[in-house]
Design brief:
Leucine-rich repeat, LRR (right-handed beta-alpha superhelix); seven-stranded parallel β-sheet; binds 2-acetamido-2-deoxy-beta-D-glucopyranose; Leu-rich_rpt; repeat
Length: 946
């Protein structure tokens, strides 16, 4: 991308020099005065003094000043003050506008609009301008219509003023008959295809460069554009074109750049366009409804850059791809290409970057030994099986998620592997540049060949999800290692030792057979680690205190082992630690949390804890997810936790909590609580209505605003912690999952001894998705206010002592997928209509006084409808905390790393669909609400590619 940008800059600069040949002559006095006045009025960002304007002083000829060009007779024709950190000083009264002869004005890359100064309308006075560049200045407001008076313009560039609006495009450009290049990227033009295409095709017959990225343009691409035969560059990135690509683009014989990523294109891409001999760069990425296939490529094609990633392109890769001798970049990841990688790719000697991940390619990998400059190869997520060898020096190699099997070759006998023809012949011995090596998710077995441990530049090493059994070293000495992922293998024995402190930031040893105790010195070895997981091994013994010496530790996952004893005091007082997961161990105690507690997620469920530490949790004022489920805690309801206003998820299920859940008013409320699970305890008494009405997050129905995820970064290897803050794009499923989980709200009070009536205030929790009050002793009527829970998908009130009629308001619950009112004392006719017709008898049985379908035929004397077969368990509506808890944690913005959740799957398109399907099980009507079109995955390219 960067090269393209340079290409454009080069084009622009070229123009300037064509338009204004540099001439030296004595500058005219009044021109000099105007320039000096102009200089005086400029304001610079104080940190960055101007470099060009230093030479501007009255004692020298202004035609010799840097940035000034003159005609032979001393008229100032050109002014270039680009990239000078000018922050203000050019308004309508500026003496700049006295320079009437100006033909070229370049003020790009300053901060002229930073003080809410919009583009001065006096620009229209510079009637001789042929070249005008005001790009990248943070100009707000609108492009002044006076610019349309500059009828001699050849180049107009107003790009990258992010908040700039535009007058009607037709009005703006109608008199630019000489215009060759138009750059309005990120200007909010907001017009339909019928308007903007028409404006351009009727007014700009000589246009060569059309650059309108992110202009909020709609489609279609009108036939009238076919007139613009001179077009060489078409860039419409990230507009909502929503139309097919017109075939007439293939008639533009000078087309060099066609860039249409993220345009919601559909239909079949006209493949003749690929065959244009002039074409150098084509980018159709992120159009997930665009079909197409690759044609035979002509000999000596000029294509350098090919990006089809995240489209529906399919078919075989043509052997003629080897004809594209200039090709340096191929991105076809996440398409549907099949078959082998053509052997002719060997001939792509200019290749620099190759990503074909996420297709269905199979067979062997061609040799790239002739491509001396290739440094990036990503072939992950295919079905590649056979050998790969003779690679040039690489920086980046990702072969993860293929079908490579067999052991890694050893340095001493690679040749014997060649002879034996094993599945994987990977000679990386001399890859001294390699910084990224990902062989994860294959079927590689045996031991880690020791040459891996001599790749001194390795920054990332991912061998996870193979069948490797031995590390083959007792100590790892890779000083540049930042990311080490060995999870889900069959490593056994001791956790590897690092001879000198290891600077790795991310360490995942989870899901292996590492045995024995955690070395007591472990924390001294990993001083910089922020993510550390030993989860799901056979570790026993205690949690060593030395872990607290990893001062950057943010996520510590020791779950699912046989650790016993106490969570050490220092971990509960460690400000950096945000996620602590010790679920499913044999821990018996947790030391008190101190005021230094910075935890956001604490999962200590499934241990043998008795809860003496409970009161000290008030010190964890950042807590968002708290899971204490399945312990032996015998305590009253922890009212003091109501002061933790950040809490989103509270799980107390399967303990021995007892007593009332009402709290004193002086305790705070839970404004963001989304999930409260008190099931399987001994709580009793009434559920006070006020305890519910304070739950703000459940009361307000949220809109689909972009959800900010702090500290998480999308990465080729999943998601992990970073300092930066990002916003997830609001398109596609990634957003949707985040969104769904963000709005997922549930109350589970089942299997307790609550009595009294169900508080009618519950009807105020408008965003509630699931409500389970079953197996209690609630009496009285089913509150009709439940009919207000318009989002409700699951309602279980079974096995209580509820009486009266089923309120007809419940039929308003159009999303209700699961209903269980069985085993109460309800009477009367079952309401009919809407969702109610979908429930079978099991939803109502055990209520002697209920009648009507589906229990009985409609006439009162009728017989009961046949019992439906099948176990009508509501298991599927019970929340699977194994899945939901980390996801919610992730959603809430502090992320338990997905890797440990999904084992060998990564954060990519089929992961989304897996996740989506899981969500569909919990919320069967998701599809109905969000629509099918949003299932397409869409990760903003910025986060995806580096
Ligand atoms: C632009 O051209 C139209 C006719 O095509 C004319 O009426 C109008 O005055 C022109 N505007 C400017 C600013 O020259
Ligand atoms: C294509 O470019 C060539 C060389 O610059 C020029 O002579 C020719 O007229 C252009 N073709 C069109 C259709 O503009
Ligand atoms: C590479 O190119 C040469 C010359 O164009 C050709 O003879 C050869 O067959 C090509 N190699 C492959 C593997 O296609
Ligand atoms: C680790 O590697 C570094 C640099 O390669 C070297 O200087 C150091 O001696 C090695 N340490 C051990 C214990 O092998
Ligand atoms: C952990 O607890 C379980 C269940 O109480 C027990 O069977 C197991 O032996 C314990 N393991 C260790 C290492 O203490």
């Amino acid at each position: 991308m960067r090269t393209l940008l340079h290409f454009f800059l080069f084009l622009i600069t070229l123009w300037v020099s064509i338009i204004i040949p540099p001439v030296h002559s004595q500058c005219i006095k009044d021109q000099q005065l105007s320039l000096l006045q102009f200089k005086k009025s400029l304001v610079f960002v104080s940190l960055h003094p101007s470099t060009k304007l230093i030479s501007w002083n009255a004692s020298t000829d202004c035609c010799s000043w840097v940035g000034v060009t003159c005609s032979r007779n001393g008229r100032v024709l050109g002014l270039d003050i680009s990239s000078e950190h000018v922050s203000a000083g050019i308004d309508n009264s500026s003496s700049l506008f006295h320079l009437h002869y100006l033909q070229s004005l370049n003020l790009a890359d300053n901060l002229l609009g930073s003080d809410s100064q919009s583009i001065p309308s006096a620009i229209g006075k510079l009637a001789n301008l042929r070249y005008l560049d005001l790009s990248d200045n943070r100009y707000p407001g609108k492009i002044p219509i006076e610019i349309s008076r500059l009828t001699r313009l050849v180049v107009l560039a107003l790009s990258d003023n992010v908040q700039l609006g535009s007058p009607n495009l037709r009005m703006l450009v109608q008199n630019f008959t000489e215009l060759r290049e138009l750059y309005l990227d990120s200007v909010q033009i907001s017009e339909q295809g019928s308007e903007w295409c028409q404006a351009i095709s009727s007014s700009l017959p000589n246009l060569k460069v059309l650059s309108l990225s992110s202009c909020n343009l709609s489609g279609p691409l009108l036939e009238s554009l076919a007139k613009l035969q001179s077009l060489s560059v078409i860039r419409l990135n990230w507009n909502n074109i929503s139309a097919p690509v017109p075939g007439f683009f293939a008639n533009f014989s000078n087309l060099t750049v066609l860039s249409l990523p993220g345009c919601e294109l559909h239909g079949t891409f006209p493949k003749e366009i690929f065959q244009l001999p002039s074409l150098q760069s084509i980018d159709l990425s992120f159009n997930d409804q665009l079909d197409g296939s690759l044609p035979e490529f002509p000999r000596n094609g000029s294509l350098q850059y090919l990006d089809l990633s995240w489209t529906n392109f399919s078919g075989l890769l043509p052997n003629s791809i080897g004809n594209l001798k200039m090709l340096s970049t191929i991105y076809i990841q996440e398409c549907y290409f099949t078959g082998p990688m053509p052997k002719s790719m060997t001939n792509l000697t200019r290749l620099v970057s190759l990503s074909m991940s996420g297709n269905k390619l199979e067979g062997s990998i061609p040799s790239f030994s002739g491509a001396k400059n290739v440094n990036f190869i990503d072939l992950s997520y295919n079905g590649l099986t056979a050998s790969l060898f003779s690679l040039p020096l690489l920086d980046y190699l990702d072969l993860s998620s293929n079908q490579f099997s067999g052991p890694l070759p050893e340095i001493s006998n690679v040749s014997s592997y060649l002879l034996n023809g094993p599945n994987l012949e990977l000679d990386l011995r001399n890859q001294s540049n390699l910084s990224h090596l990902d062989l994860s998710n294959n079927q590689i077995n045996g031991k880690i060949a020791d040459w891996i441990w001599s790749l001194n530049n390795l920054n990332l090493l991912n061998l996870s999800c193979n069948s490797l059994g031995s590390l083959e070293v007792h100590s790892i000495n890779l000083t540049n290692l930042n990311y080490l992922d060995l999870h889900s293998n069959q490593f056994h024995g001791q956790i590897p030792i690092f001879p000198s402190p290891c600077n790795a930031n991310y360490l995942d040893f989870s899901r292996n057979y590492f045995i024995s105790i955690i070395p007591s010195t472990i924390g001294y070895v990993f001083p910089r680690t922020t993510f550390f997981s030993l989860s799901s091994n056979n570790l026993n013994g205690i949690i060593p205190e030395s872990l607290c010496n990893s001062h950057f530790l943010k996520i510590l996952d020791l779950s699912n082992s046989s650790l016993s004893g106490t969570v050490p005091h220092c971990l509960t007082t460690m400000w950096s630690l945000e996620v602590l997961n010790v679920r499913r161990n044999n821990l018996t105690n947790v030391d008190d949390f101190s005021h230094n507690c910075g935890l956001k997620t604490l999962d200590i469920s499934e241990n043998h804890l008795q809860g003496r530490f409970l009161k000290s949790l008030v010190n964890c004022t950042q807590l968002e997810v708290l899971n204490l489920g399945k312990n032996l805690i015998t305590e009253p309801f922890p009212c003091f936790l109501r002061n933790t206003s950040t809490l989103r998820v509270l799980v107390l299920r399967s303990n021995k909590f007892y007593g009332h859940i009402g709290c004193h008013k002086t305790n705070g409320s839970w404004p963001v609580l989304q999930i409260i699970d008190l099931a399987h305890n001994n709580f009793s008494g009434e559920v006070p209505g006020t305890a519910l009405t304070t739950l703000q997050a459940m009361r307000t129905s949220k809109d689909a605003a972009p959800w900010k995820i702090n500290n998480l970064q999308f990465d080729l290897d999943g998601i992990y912690y970073q300092e930066d803050t990002i916003t997830v794009t609001n398109k596609g499923l990634d957003m949707e999952l985040v969104f769904v989980l963000a709005i997922f709200t549930s109350i589970d009070f089942s299997y307790n001894k609550f009595n009294g009536s169900i508080p009618k205030e519950i009807g105020e929790l408008k965003s509630l998705y699931a409500l389970n009050l079953s197996n209690n002793a609630f009496t009285g009527a089913v509150p009709s206010s439940l009919g207000n829970l318009s989002q409700l998908e699951s309602l279980d009130l079974s096995k209580n002592k509820l009486s009266g009629q089923i309120p007809p308001e419940l039929t308003k619950l159009t999303f209700l997928e699961f209903l269980n009112l069985s085993y109460n004392q309800l009477v009367g006719r079952i309401p009919s209509g809407a969702q109610f017709s979908t429930f079978d008898a099991a939803s109502f049985e055990g209520n002697k006084g209920l009648w009507g379908p589906p229990l009985t035929a409609d006439n009162r004397t009728g017989f009961s409808s046949p019992k439906l077969e099948g176990n009508h368990s509501n298991a599927r509506h019970e929340i699977d905390w194994d899945i939901i808890c980390p996801e919610i944690g992730f959603t809430c913005g502090f992320g338990i790393v997905i890797g440990s959740l999904l084992f060998c799957k990564r954060w990519r398109k089929w992961y989304y669909s897996a996740m989506y399907n899981m969500l569909l099980k919990i919320f069967p009507q998701l599809e109905q609400r969000f629509g099918h079109h949003r299932r397409h995955v869409y990760v903003h390219q910025r986060y995806w590619r580096r």
